[in-house]
UniProtKB/TrEMBL annotation:
Domain of life: Bacteria
Matching Pfam families: Sigma70_r2 (PF04542), Sigma70_r4_2 (PF08281)
Family according to the record: Belongs to the sigma-70 factor family. ECF subfamily.
Keywords associated with the record: Sigma factor, Transcription, Transcription regulation
InterPro entries assigned to the protein according to its UniProt record, in alphabetical order: RNA_pol_sigma-70-like, RNA_pol_sigma-70_dom, RNA_pol_sigma70_r2, RNA_pol_sigma70_r4_t2, RNA_pol_sigma_r2, RNA_pol_sigma_r3/r4-like, WH-like_DNA-bd_sf
Residues annotated as domain RNA polymerase sigma-70 region: 26-93
Protein name as it appears in the record: RNA polymerase
Domain RNA polymerase sigma factor 70 region 4 type as annotated: residue spans: 127-179
Species, as recorded: Chitinophaga flava
Length: 184
């Protein structure tokens, strides 16, 4: 375990015991990472910031019921992802309700040219992604599939592939880094 992971674990345990300073320390040490992660998911910086704040408020409100966590950042990323998905679903329902009340549907029809351009862009992205995936090792491809397409946790991936959780995490991290480099 790295010292940062140790620090997060200590902060988590102190938070569980009602230490408000531990909440602030955990918030300060993970905020930038959570913000980057959230922006990759939805791109709405105000929504992401609100969800991060809500997440930490919920952690404080339920600190007595929190369970021990082995990988605090992974727990926070998952919790933020759920928070964002819930908020996006809620906003979608509100938007749909307003559309029904006002009788106004947004015009989402694209011109023929816009459709052709989008299809071409999609094909180009698919080709670049396919090419980037070829740069990964078979093990990296397998772990990316398990993590992002089957939605398994790192613990589940480790158990299924007979690896440690840290090895699974590092393999996925390296694969994502390779993909980013190839796609940029």
């Amino acid at each position: 375990m790295s010292t940062e992971e140790d620090l997060h674990s200590v902060q988590w345990e102190r938070l569980r015991n009602g230490d408000k300073q531990a909440l602030f320390a955990l918030y300060n040490s993970t905020y930038a990472h959570l913000l980057r992660f959230g922006l990759k998911l939805c791109g709405n910086d105000e929504l992401v910031k609100d969800c991060i704040t809500q997440l930490f408020l919920q952690l404080w409100n339920k600190h007595a019921q929190l369970k021990p966590v082995t990988n605090v950042p992974a727990y926070l990323f998952t919790a933020l992802k759920r928070q964002l998905l819930d908020q996006l679903a809620y906003q979608s329902r509100i938007h749909d309700a307003i559309s029904k009340i006002t009788g106004k549907e947004e015009e989402n029809e694209l011109s023929y040219e816009e459709i052709i351009i989008r299809v071409q862009q999609d094909d180009e992205i698919k080709q670049r992604l396919h090419s980037a995936i070829k740069a990964l090792t078979p093990r990296q491809i397998e772990l990316i599939r398990l993590k992002f397409f089957e939605g398994l946790s790192y613990e589940q991936i480790a158990a299924q592939t007979s690896q440690t959780v840290k090895t699974a995490y590092n393999t996925v991290y390296d694969a994502i880094k390779t993909l980013r480099k190839k796609l940029s």
